[in-house]
Design a protein that fits this description.
The structure holds two protein chains of two kinds.
Chain A lengths: L14 H55 L2 E5 L14 E5 L6 E8 L2 H7 L4 E7 L2 E2 L4 E2 L6 E9 L5 E5 L9 E8 L5 E8 L31 E4 L6 E4 L5 E5 L19 E4 L2 E4 L3 E3 L4 E3 L4
Parallel strand pairs in A: 11-13, 12-15, 13-16
Antiparallel strand pairs in A: 1-2, 2-3, 3-4, 4-7, 5-6, 8-9, 9-10, 14-15, 16-17
Chain B lengths: L13 H52 L3 E4 L9 E2 L26 E5 L2 E4 L11 E7 L2 E9 L6 E7 L13
Antiparallel strand pairs in B: 1-2, 1-4, 3-5, 5-6, 6-7
Classes of the chains: A alpha+beta, B alpha+beta.
Amino acid sequence: MSFRPKARPKDGFNLIELLLTLSVLGVVLAGLSRIMIAENKLSLQTSRDLAIRDALNQNNQLLRSEIALSSRITTSTAGLSNTCNSDPIPSVVLVGPGDAWRISYGIRNATDTEKSSEWFGPALLIRCGKPYSASAGGIDVLQTETKTVALDRLVSSTGFSATVAAGNYASKNASITLNLLSDSGKTISTTLQAGIAGNQLYGTLENPTVTCSSPSYLCSDSTDDIDNYRPPETTTTITGSTSKEVVVFFPKKTSEYSISSNQTCNTSQCVIGNVTIKNASLLVFADKEWRLPSP
Amino acid sequence: MSKATQHDPSGFTLTEVMVVVAIMAVVMAMTLASFRSYLQEQRLRLTANELANLLGAGQSIAAKKSGTCKITLQSGTGAIFGADSSLSNNVCTNSNLARANLYLTASTNLSVSGRTTYTYTKFGTLDGGSSLTTFLSSTSTPWVWCINVSSPTGLVRIGTKDSSVSNASCNYRRG
């Protein structure tokens, strides 16, 4: 007996067949769309996570350059410095050479207004300090301090921790940890270990307990072996002792002083800007130390 | 057995075809209008992303070359992005930026408003004490795209706002 397929009606599919096909198609399409939605969500989440990492890297880059520009780092429990005191949050404070500027970073929970549109919670990293300007070539000390949000999405209670080597004015040894919360609930962490200042002696300038008064500008932290001097920028002559190590501190970088290329700088005499130095052994600038040769 | 349920073996009548075509035309017109708006929104999204990338490129060039980078956005000339040639010591030029023009040109009804110049310092930080925002909009969609650069970090965020809502602020969650 040969097999003969069941003959179909000539006028097409019946209602049952159509409904069955539609429901199978519906199930398949529903499954596919769920996969596509999940894929889309994952891709969006990944790109947002990458954006968070980018923001964190960018912020770290700024922190690094500001730490490099600063002469010391300290902490404050009183709140963000100067004009930002209305935000009473504990902060880490970067202090510029000669106290020319202060930049504070602190963390607090985002307000409801901030969370409703502008910023992601739960917490924000707030920066308070003088802004940068292209005309000033960096931090513009003539401008007033402004408060800005440096980073959002910080984990609230453990989002920020800063430890600073207390009482050591010659050191920038600070550890700043930031913990950010990704869209997928992961914590993205980074710890910024600020290096010890390249110029260990430079920190002496920043010690508020040390005085270096006129007319000699000999500093009060001088010892039996070392005399420290901190001259003003006006025309001055410093005459050190030939029997001691004489260290003269300048608050700026070497490039910011006019140093005549015609002169021969040695322990006998050297002219830096308006300051004439006699019998000095070591000149300390913001960027480097300069040990003078014998004449 | 009823005859009405049986198909005419000779095919569809003219009236049937016309009714089907008319229904299809109405549905397609409705779909096309919303598709056009969707397409425009996607183009705005692309442009916003490109603008964000290019601002980021300007920032890194300023930091890398340790100079000032000034970027000017123009509207209505076809090119809406470019380095500012009026600044003599500008380390950003159209050739060293990733691309000279953005994805969209003025012919697609793109409108640029808000901040149109960005200056980065040699540290890669934004000049000035406040964050800056550029708005990209189009006549075919109510959504305005906001590209915000924070000060001084130079962090670029993308968001949107509904132009049909008065005084709406940008929502950076949607970008």
